[in-house]
Amino acid sequence: MDMILKKHHLILIASFTCCQLLADDGYRLWLRYDRIENESIRADYMEAIRFVYVDGESPMMAVARKELAMGLSGLLGQTISQKPADADRGVYLGIVGKSGYIEPFISPGNLKGLRSEGFLIKATSDRTIIAALDEQGLLYGAFHFLKLLQLNKSIAGISTLENPRIQHRILNHWDNLDGTVERGYAGFSIWNWHQLPTYIDQRYIDYARANASIGINGTVVTNVNANALIFRADYVEKAAALADVFRPYGIKLYLTARFSAPMELGGLSTADPEDEAVKSWWQQKAAEIYKAIPDFGGFLVKANSEGQPGPQDYGRDHASGANMLADAVAPFGGIVMWRAFVYSEETPEDRALQAYNEFVPLDGSFHPNVMIQVKNGPIDFQPREPVHPLFGAMPKTPLMLELQITKEYLGQGTHVVGLAIMFRETLDTDTFRDGKGTTVAKVVEGTEKGHQLSGIAGVANIGTARNWTGNHFGQADWYAFGQLAWDPGVSVETIYTDWAQITFTHEPKAVQVIVNLLTRSYEACVNYMTPLGLHHIMGAGHHYGPAPWVDSQSRPDWNSVYYHKADDRGIGFDRTGTGSNALLQYSPEFRAQYEDALSCPPEFLLWFHHVGWETVISTGNTLWDELCIRYHKGAGEVAAFRQQWQGIESSIDSERFKEVLMHLSIQEMEAKWWRDACLSYFQSFSRMEIPNGLEQPEHSLDYYKSLSFPYAPGIRPRW
Amino acid sequence: MDMILKKHHLILIASFTCCQLLADDGYRLWLRYDRIENESIRADYMEAIRFVYVDGESPMMAVARKELAMGLSGLLGQTISQKPADADRGVYLGIVGKSGYIEPFISPGNLKGLRSEGFLIKATSDRTIIAALDEQGLLYGAFHFLKLLQLNKSIAGISTLENPRIQHRILNHWDNLDGTVERGYAGFSIWNWHQLPTYIDQRYIDYARANASIGINGTVVTNVNANALIFRADYVEKAAALADVFRPYGIKLYLTARFSAPMELGGLSTADPEDEAVKSWWQQKAAEIYKAIPDFGGFLVKANSEGQPGPQDYGRDHASGANMLADAVAPFGGIVMWRAFVYSEETPEDRALQAYNEFVPLDGSFHPNVMIQVKNGPIDFQPREPVHPLFGAMPKTPLMLELQITKEYLGQGTHVVGLAIMFRETLDTDTFRDGKGTTVAKVVEGTEKGHQLSGIAGVANIGTARNWTGNHFGQADWYAFGQLAWDPGVSVETIYTDWAQITFTHEPKAVQVIVNLLTRSYEACVNYMTPLGLHHIMGAGHHYGPAPWVDSQSRPDWNSVYYHKADDRGIGFDRTGTGSNALLQYSPEFRAQYEDALSCPPEFLLWFHHVGWETVISTGNTLWDELCIRYHKGAGEVAAFRQQWQGIESSIDSERFKEVLMHLSIQEMEAKWWRDACLSYFQSFSRMEIPNGLEQPEHSLDYYKSLSFPYAPGIRPRW
């Protein structure tokens, strides 16, 4: 690996001796608003947009007006009037029932199906109407209109109505108050708590703009491994300053609640949720917060998991804890998001079983303003997991889906891995809980069960990196999360084609390469890291790089060997009836797909089965050969990605081109590292040869085991 | 304080609801190269600069060429030819004795006094010549030429020759390998060790450009509290990638050497500098480093200080340790910078005495490639300290001056405090060691003692903040350090007038306000923090905010009370013959200025004397009254700074204007906090009233003592 590193870095340095100070650094994300290059399209727009009038004077309408002014002046290359001029062609934005400017031009039929936060964009021969039931919908309509222009879409005759299908679309920042970010690979936290509330970083505003533009309407700014200090008066005031920035963008601020805060901050001797003094402390604290932040969203809670305090410390269950907090914020309209990512102090036979076992019995006992937040899979954001068995298994409880946008297990800050494919896989998975078609998306939307709340959370990949996400392509993951949170039915093709065009270029070949890269990289990554259902074989602690040999962590289920169970006979975790029987937590129809090792889809084979090295699997190869083939295929694809990227240099601005190329070079090296380290290790059990025609590992297994990375990013320091 | 905070933050939010994405964010520092607004000046330049030709093809000449191309196209608004055209008016850059393009136009008289790294800029009627003895001088000449244009100076008839007066002009980064920065207030480390050597951040290049433009020719990229890991092969390769970026900019890379590295990394049982295996380990390590970095600068070492390992652990002295390392790098031309900031495990009567006592006896015993790096004062970068007694006291040893650019004790990331005044105070101080006129500057230049080496170090204030220094005015401190390192004789007025014009505006009133702010803020800060020679009364650990009451730190000399010694009778540290007699470490003429409390200049009164509360001091006031007056004067001046800044809004781009205003608002609040907290505390000893006409403290002493800041920035986390 060392030699490869050396070579690449010399090449890259050589092309870097000059620099343009104003080169594109990616800070503007997908809101670039550069002048539209196609003259005829721009001319059409100029003809149709002689003015843009936002009918309303609130802070949110001011924000919409300013975004339109900024966007249009950039895209069209000239300032567009903001005054209404009835005779002329123009764009009107107004609230249904409130704006005389729009009423005459829309019929009840046009508005059919329009709901809160949704919008209608409708063009007639002499004007374009953007209508909504509320200001938030109008703001989203304004951003959508700008996006249509960024995409160079024709607006003549347009008639589009959009509603969000999920109510709470929320980012989760695992940001610590010391500025570090747990599992953050894009620098450090963008929240400068020390200088808040007085210093308002321009980033806070641009963060809000970016989120509003993709429909995100909530943000949890503190880590789920929570710190009670956030509830101290001066920190509440700091949080309020952030909420003030976010409010006109329709983004509610949420905080994580450390369950033991009444003791640590309040000086109580207990945090028992049934204790009256504890209840009273939280009620008082909620009142204080709502005084500073009238539209405070509520609490996100990680309790009784990985050492965090929780109601079980007092012999209470999750419902008792969640309801107590929910009651504190209920008078103010707040909600509680209670995480189902729990595992107890004692290690069970199979960690995958725990959340289901703890939560299913509580279905129906949560108060109406509680949602249970469930990770996509039962372990922990592995490159590929089957869906979490809780989806569909708690029909009386609204379940939020928690996705990880930051790539803790998918190459961290340097690998290009388009996550929309993975998100879609989860959303589209059929739980069969209410018969065929009970997809995770349907469960989360919750409409069939009549849930009042619905929600989706994404663990943010945002940091102080100039381009927000460290890797330019990480922006696509943030964008994709927003798009899927708004409409879980939107296609990956649409997401990535739009993103490529508004973020990079309209040049067709380049768009094709970018979309291909984003669409195929997920499968490639699964192949070079954890093919065939392998999971949790990364470095301990920092989770960087391959380490299937990890076997000395304090808890058995923190070790790689716990998960892959490789031995002389074979490899894989038997979760069928002959093993942990985790499969039993799924519906019979779901189970049927995976129960038999012979017919189990290869992507989950080793998740559910321990399979002999020489067993011929459904692909027609022996397990060992298939493992080798997949590792090599994944690593090989990354090399192709780099070449494809190099082929579109002329279509990409130079700074971003080089930065992506450097990351692809790192990814190429690391994909080989994963391949060679894992195959070397597994070979020590299988004692079989790497099939003919495939490269041998570059180094010995001892070499790979000797590598150490004490300062790999994304770990929470112990202050 | 809370109420004031609230008010400011509402005002600032209100003016912030819009944003310009391409607003000036300060990233370009003083190398803005915006088009020159004055048409006539620009026309003159266009006439005189029809082309610019750099006669040379090396990487360094390529860098000069590119900088000139970028700078001129920006300043003049059009691309300038890089081809020589003898008949036309143009600019030639060439090495003396090597370039036929310059030889005919310079006489030996023109070159008189020109030395290595220096340059000559000379305009005749038909051409401008930039000449130097070496490429580095030519690069500096190119930057100087661009600066002349940025300053709108006439280049007709110009004839200027400049040489650096100090040989090693070095930044010290207290950056940890985990990305944190000890005493960093501008975000986190700009070195992304994890992604090096492959990912070359654009910042590395722009960092090199900025430093080269002010003559800085070395950088120590790792913390003096050192980590042996930097010497592991993969980290050496990462460091080499940085060195590759810096090389064409004439900047050498240095590393900090952890004295115990032979044990921690090499597996030896000792780090004894007289042990042959230890010597051999360092020799081998030096050879490895020089193989990767042929122009590696050498080591900076903090040993036997604040818990760091060192030669005294083995009964050896500093010379033994320094010489052993110096011998390892000597074959390759490297140097060792050995810090004199030491204090032993046992607390002495007066910490100020220690460095002198340990180092003076070693004068003459250091090898020729060793410099001793001495902080400006004997304690630790306090707002105001008398000069360090070592200056002039080790005539046989080259002493480097260590200045702190990062504002650990001067308001950290938020206060505007122009440090050039403080740097000048140190440089101009007369040690009288070789008679009158033996200033610190002369000692550091070392020419009179015939030293082969000379050096000056500045602890960097640079971080991941978009504008590099967090506070826009922090850029002025970086710039001032570079200017004074190049020429310790340059005036503060010149430094700040130039900086204001090239960084902000040529508008005279605005320049005046900026220069005033930078010139007066240092004295204001000393007054609101530590007037009359007080020192080390800040918060423990993070050093944020006032805390004269600190009395429970593990070492006595880590406590505030150790330094101010306030009691019922008075306040101050008696360092005369009746006390610690630290004054005895200075020359008789120096001593004479401070020995008598009655005539001691007020700025050092309490540094050298314990003075009664009711004693009438040289200003004509009682000590208590003078203390109150100075605290109030300092805080009051900050309020005036804010008002002055608001008065030039029309001359400053909006983003930087608002950001500076927010920081000035924080500074105003914190100046009052310092004033009120310190006076409340000292009043508990003096039991005297705050003089009539001065505001009473806003809160009780208990309130100020109750404040805690567990996540104040700049602390090194314990990973």
List the helices and strands and how they pair.
The structure is a homodimer of 719-residue chains.
Chain A: H1 2-14, H2 39-48, E1 52-54, H3 59-76, E2 90-95, H4 108-111, E3 119-123, E4 127-132, H5 135-150, E5 159-162, E6 168-172, H6 202-213, E7 218-220, H7 233-246, E8 252-256, H8 261-264, H9 276-292, E9 298-301, H10 318-329, E10 335-339, H11 354-359, E11 370-375, E12 399-404, H12 420-428, H13 440-445, E13 455-459, H14 474-486, H15 492-503, H16 508-529, H17 560-564, E14 570-571, H18 588-594, H19 605-608, E15 611-612, H20 623-646, H21 654-686, H22 701-706
Helix pairs in contact in A: 1-21, 3-5, 9-10, 14-15, 15-16, 16-20, 20-21
Description:
The first copy, chain A, has 719 residues and is α/β, with parallel strands linked by helices. In chain A, 37% of the residues lie in helices and 9% in strands. Chain A contains 22 helices and 15 strands. In chain A, the strands form 3 sheets. The first copy, chain A, has an 8-stranded parallel beta barrel with strand order 6-7-8-9-10-11-12-13. In chain A, strand 10, helix 11 (354-359) and strand 11 form a beta-alpha-beta unit. In chain A, helix 15 (492-503) packs across helix 16 (508-529) and helix 16 (508-529) packs antiparallel against helix 20 (623-646). Chain A is globular, with a radius of gyration of 26 Å. At the A-B interface, helix 1, helix 3, helix 6, helix 7 and helix 21 of A face helix 1, helix 3, helix 6, helix 7 and helix 21 of B.
